[in-house]
Specification:
single chain; alpha/beta; Alpha/beta knot; Helicase, Ruva Protein, domain 3; 2 domains; 10 helices; 12% strand; binds S-adenosyl-L-homocysteine
């Protein structure tokens, strides 16, 4: 689906930005890059900045005009760092991503259009676009680096796409790998409460004849802590050592404690 989104860079002067844009796109799962009259391409600088995204550079489409770049697109979104005089339907990057998704879900093609490093897009070029997109940067310093602007919009497209696919946006491991990531179970907690209670009696903190609400409060405390198996082992170890001290048994000090 994402291959129906093309990134169009108009009249780019620095080949490094072309490479940077390719890398940003590949990171976010986009693959179609169209260059309108680039000033210096192909270029070793573009390849260097693309890092591993040379496949995108390899399949770049180079055209002479914006009209050619937009052939087959049902919607074009033109980006601008500044406010322009003619009022136009304006989207923020998130709304831009939603619009992209709406179109590609209907198998229409979409273009994200980016301008020149020094002058942006001309008014004529912007008027060829159905929507204008502005990244809400600080008005006192509003212009992002071209590849950074590609990154922001590609990222928003990816977030919207992941959401539409019902895919997670957070890294999640399939299986818990360490004891520190495994939640303690209810039965392990019960064993701990038993151990805690007997230890508290042994050290004289809990009077079995008059227990009041101590154990309920401790259950409430530990219950809301989300204890891992590893943390449980530590707590059980503390209790075991405490009991040894109470019984007057020698306890082994750890090497590093000595
Ligand atoms: N001096 C130019 C800035 C161009 S920056 C100007 O004033 O227009 C190069 C390109 O990066 C812009 O044409 C646009 O495509 C993109 N870009 C940079 N900052 C942006 C922003 N805040 N919002 C949207 N696009 C931006």
């Amino acid at each position: 689906m994402l291959q129906n989104i093309r990134v169009v860079l108009v009249n780019t002067s620095h080949p490094g930005n072309i490479g940077g844009a390719a890398r940003a796109m590949k990171n976010m799962g986009l693959s179609r890059l169209v260059l309108v009259d680039p000033q210096d391409f192909p270029s070793s600088e573009a390849t260097a900045r693309a890092s591993g995204a040379t496949d995108i550079l390899g399949s770049v489409q180079v055209v002479g005009t914006l009209e050619e770049a937009l052939v087959g697109c049902s919607v074009a979104l033109g980006t601008s760092a500044r406010e322009r005089h003619i009022p136009w339907p304006l989207l923020d990057p998130r709304e831009c991503a939603t619009t992209c998704l709406q179109h590609i879900q209907q198998e229409s093609e979409v273009a994200l259009v980016f301008g020149r490093e020094y002058a942006g897009l001309t008014n004529e070029e912007l008027q060829r676009c159905h929507f204008h997109v502005h990244i809400p940067s600080d008005p006192a310093f509003s212009s992002l680096n071209l590849a950074a602007a590609v990154q922001v919009l590609s990222y928003e497209v990816r977030m919207a796409w992941l959401q539409a696919q019902g895919q997670p946006t957070k890294m999640s491991k399939v299986e818990p790998v360490s004891l520190d990531e495994q939640q303690v179970t209810a039965d392990e907690l019960e064993l701990f409460y038993g151990h805690l209670e007997s230890t508290l009696v042994q050290i004289g903190f809990l009077d079995p004849q008059n227990p009041r609400h101590l154990m309920s409060r401790l259950r409430r405390l530990y219950g809301r802590s989300g204890i891992s198996k590893l943390e449980m082992n530590i707590l059980r170890g503390v209790l075991t050592e405490t009991q040894k001290v109470v019984r007057g048994e020698p306890h082994k000090r750890r090497k590093e404690d000595v």
